[in-house]
Structure formats: structure tokens, C-alpha cells
Amino acid sequence: MKANQAKWPIATMARLLGVSASGFYAWLERAPSKRACSNAELLARIRVIHARSRGTYGMPRIHFELTEQRVHVGRKRVARLMRLAGLCGVRRRRWISTTRRTARARPGATTFQRGRAQPAVGSRCDLCADR
After folding, report:
1. Are 57 and 65 in contact (CB under 8 A)?
2. Do 46 and 81 meet the contact criterion of CB atoms below 8 Å apart?
3. Residue 103 CA to its chain's centroid (Å)
4. Which of the chain's termini has less CB crowding within 10 Å, N or C?
5. Domain boundaries, the chain
6. pLDDT tens for residues 27-62?
7. Residue 98 CA to chain centroid, in angstroms?
8. pTM over 0.85
9. CA–CA separation, 122 vs 53, rounded Å?
10. What is the SS3 string spanning 21-86?
């Protein structure tokens, strides 16, 4: 109702939503709840820890830091507040294996086993022959 009060009258929105207009105005004047104040304080602590880690810490490490600071809070609450604030940690990159060896594969031959001629002592190597 608050977001649309510029477009529609409060009385009309209250009637359509099944609430009283006086209840809406009472809600506007009401102070934030204890939980909302606690969430704001906790989110401020989470932002400090996240910034100190240069944005790398995720929910598990931030929860650990909070428990070290003797702040009793659940993991899911930390995760929810981080998600709503748009904070996330950095994930480790996946290790990619590029070579897939089979059990019956044999190692490749070295240059000595291939029968390649070795350069004579004191001569230039074959890599430098193009110059």
C-alpha cells in the first residue's frame, strides 16, 4: 500500500486488501520490531566481516567469525541476511584434469628411444639450424 499510495487512494486499497485504513496508518507510525533491529545490527556485523575478508568469506566462515565474537546466531539466519543483502563468498575453482589415462596405455618413447640423431659435441642444435 505504501508503494502505491501515489497512484491509488488508501481507502480503496484498504478495502480491496481487506484491511482498515487506520491499521495502515498505525503500521506507518509503529517502531521497528526487536527482530528487525537485531537483523539490522547483525547485518552490519556481517558486512564488516565480509569487507574485511575482501569479499571472499561466505556463510560458513562468517558464521564461524560471529561465534568467535560470541554472537549466538543460526547459520540459516546468516545465510538469509547475506542473500537479502546481496553478499556472497568466492567459490574455489574446480580442478580440471586434462589427461585421461587408461589402464593399458603405455608411456610415450623419449627422443633417445625414437632413434633421433644426437647433435655432435660442439655443433649447433637442430632447433637453431633455421637461423
Report:
1. yes
2. yes
3. 39
4. C
5. 1-30, 33-90
6. 889 998 999 999 999 999 999 999 999 999 999 999
7. 27
8. no
9. 58
10. HHHHHHHHHCCCCHHHHHHHHHHHHHHHHHHHCCCCCCHHHHHHHHHHCCCCCCHHHHHHHHHHHC
- The C-alpha cell at 78 is 546468516
Contacts of residue 11, Cβ cutoff 8 Å, sequence gap at least 6? 21
What is the tens place of the pLDDT at every residue in 80-115? 999 999 999 988 888 877 777 777 777 776 666 666
Closest Cα to residue 88, out of 58, 54, 52, 128? Answer: 58
How many angstroms separate the Cα of 58 from the Cα of each of 54, 63, 65, 127? 11, 9, 11, 51
